[in-house]
Every structure is written in structure tokens, then in C-alpha cells.
Design goal:
The protein is α/β, with parallel strands linked by helices. It has helices spanning 5-13, 17-28, 32-44, 64-77, 101-104, 106-110, 132-141, 177-182, 185-190, 204-220, 245-262, 264-290, 293-304, 310-318; strands spanning 52-58, 82-88, 114-120, 146-150, 167-172, 193-196, 233-236. The protein is built from 14 helices and seven strands. The chain has a seven-stranded parallel sheet with strand order 3-2-4-1-5-6-7, with helices on both faces.
């Protein structure tokens, strides 16, 4: 990085969007010297700033980008500073990503109260990039009021995004029972709000039926201690017409305020911090093991030959640490 670290941190804290973009590039870098700078940067930012973190996932073609642009514009026009962290799937073959979310949200990307950052998921599971959590912290340090975290798509591993957001929204399209069966139970259990998008035109009656189906499915789930009565719930929106967006924000705000007043908010964030400590520890240990590739290969060969039990071979390698 050309700019010195002591210059980058205050500019991020001032809300400079160009500085924030450079800071996210820094934390996404795999270089060891950049990693040290990134950790120092995170420590240097104000720690008393707190944004509302909203995770958003949905089936392919549901209109996540259209919804985020319409929803983000509504909040930005109301004076709130909105950051969008959009994670694009990476090619398993080349490792590349299209990163087209910014072009799909053209109006929001030009709004003075908004910041959009697409990032490649690379090989990281969970629907988010490995450093998404730190990018969220940067956006909070930059003074944003709302951080929208758009995940890659619906899948069992998508549940990891719940470990970095305050409210998790599942966006779905009008469909019959087949899609209800297709959505993983795991992601249904962590959703705080299910929004049926495209509730307009000829699709509105179908959206109404779909919303009723999901509302019924949610009632069958066990009540969670972190929810007030009535949550989780399902509602209809139309990102194209803007219908239901204010209602969705009201529901999100109501749930967030209840969790703050009930002490659930603070407990959840403390649990998330502990989760990411363990996750960083696990990934650090995997990196250490990668540095002993020859030892791993030798022990694996002995396991394959039946000379050692898998557990004994693993213990032999772990004892080196």
C-alpha cells in the first residue's frame, strides 16, 4: 500500500469511501505484511461505532441485487449511510469472479450515502468471503448506519452468515410447494424475516399464496429465545414497484430494538466474536499444517499402507505443535 497506515485509519474513520475501499483491499490481501497492517488498521478504528448488520440470502434469480438497490436507496434517501458487501461466487477452476453487483446497482452506487463493495468468495464456504466479517468492522468504523451483507446463494453452508449479522433476511420468489421443499431447513431456522419478492403484476396472487405457505412453515418451527412474539415472520415485497420495503424496514427495526432492550443483541454479538475467534484459530492451524506438507504426505502414506491408525498419525503430527 502506497499510503502509510497512520494516514489510512483516520480517513476511514472520517467515512472516506475511497479510503474504505483501499482498507478492504488491504484486509483481503493474502500477503503477510498486508495482514499485519490490516490487523493494526482494525485496532486503530473507533470501537464504539455500531451499525445494524443485515444478512441477505436468496435463491438464484430471486432479485437480490434489485431488492438491495431499492431497499438501500430508500434508506439512503432517508439519511442513513448504507454499506453493501456483496459476495460473488468464485470459479472453482480459475478462482475468478464476475463481481458485477456494483453495475447491477447503478443508482445506489452513485448515491452519496451509499458504499458498495463486491468481493470474491474464493474457496471459502458459508456464502461469504473469508474477510467479510472484517470488512463489516471497517464499515462500522467508517460510521455507516446499516451494513447489508449479500451472500452467494441459498445452501446449507449459508448459515455461517448468521454469525456476522444482527438480522438475517431470506429473500424468495413466488413459487409453489416445490421451492418450499427445496429450501434447506437449516437456513429456514436462522431466518428472522422471509420476504417474498416480485409480488407485483401477474405474480402477485402467487406471491400471496407463497407468503402464506412460508408463514405456515415458520409456525411449525420451534420458538427461539432471541425472538419476540410473531417472529420470525414472512411478508411480501416488490423491489420493482417499491411496495412493502418500508414495512420490511419497520419489521427489521422492531426486531432489532426488541433484541437490544432484551439484552439479546449484546449476547449474540459476544457469541459471534467467540465463534470467529475459534474460526480464525482453526484456519491458522490449517495454515500451519500446510507448512508441513511433507510430514502430512509421509504420515498419510503410512495410513494408506496400514502401518498406522488414522488417529495415531494425526496425533503424531499434532504433537509437533
Amino acid at each position: 500500500m502506497k499510503a502509510p497506515m497512520d494516514d489510512l485509519a483516520p480517513r476511514v474513520a472520517e467515512g472516506n469511501r475511497r479510503a474504505l475501499a483501499r482498507a478492504i483491499t488491504l484486509i483481503e490481501s493474502g500477503r503477510e505484511d498486508h495482514r499485519a497492517q490490516a490487523l493494526a488498521l482494525l485496532q486503530a478504528l473507533p470501537s464504539d461505532r455500531e451499525a445494524l448488520r443485515i444478512g441477505l440470502s436468496g435463491t438464484p434469480g430471486v432479485g437480490k441485487s434489485t431488492f438491495i438497490e431499492a431497499f438501500g436507496l430508500m434508506l439512503a434517501d432517508a439519511g442513513k449511510r448504507v454499506a453493501v458487501l456483496a459476495v460473488d461466487p468464485s470459479s472453482a477452476r480459475t478462482g475468478g469472479s464476475i463481481l458485477g453487483d456494483k453495475t447491477r446497482m447503478e443508482k445506489l452506487s452513485r448515491h452519496p450515502n451509499a458504499f458498495i463493495r463486491p468481493s470474491p468468495s474464493q474457496s471459502h464456504l458459508g456464502g461469504v468471503a473469508r474477510r467479510t466479517r472484517e470488512a463489516v468492522s471497517l464499515c462500522e468504523g467508517a460510521g455507516f448506519d446499516v451494513v447489508l451483507i449479500e451472500t452467494v446463494g441459498v445452501g446449507q453452508s449459508e448459515t455461517m452468515v448468521a454469525e456476522m449479522c444482527d438480522i438475517f433476511v431470506l429473500l424468495l420468489a413466488p413459487a409453489g410447494g416445490d421451492e418450499l421443499q427445496g429450501v434447506k431447513r437449516g437456513i429456514m431456522e436462522i431466518a428472522d424475516l422471509i420476504l417474498v419478492n416480485k409480488a407485483d403484476g401477474d405474480l402477485k396472487p402467487q406471491a400471496t399464496r407463497t407468503c402464506a405457505d412460508y408463514a405456515g412453515a415458520l409456525r411449525l418451527l420451534r420458538k427461539r429465545p432471541q425472538d419476540p412474539d410473531g417472529f420470525p415472520k414472512a411478508a411480501m415485497v416488490s423491489a420493482v414497484e417499491g411496495a412493502g420495503l418500508e414495512g420490511a424496514w419497520d419489521e427489521i427495526s422492531t426486531l432489532a430494538e426488541w433484541r437490544r432492550s432484551a439484552g439479546v443483541w449484546q449476547a449474540a454479538r459476544a457469541g459471534q466474536a467467540a465463534f470467529w475467534f475459534r474460526e480464525e484459530l482453526r484456519q491458522g492451524l490449517e495454515a500451519l499444517l500446510a507448512g508441513h506438507a511433507a510430514d502430512v504426505a509421509a504420515l498419510e502414506a503410512r495410513v494408506r499402507a496400514g502401518e498406522m491408525a488414522p488417529s495415531a498419525a494425526a496425533e503424531t503430527l499434532l504433537s509437533k505443535f
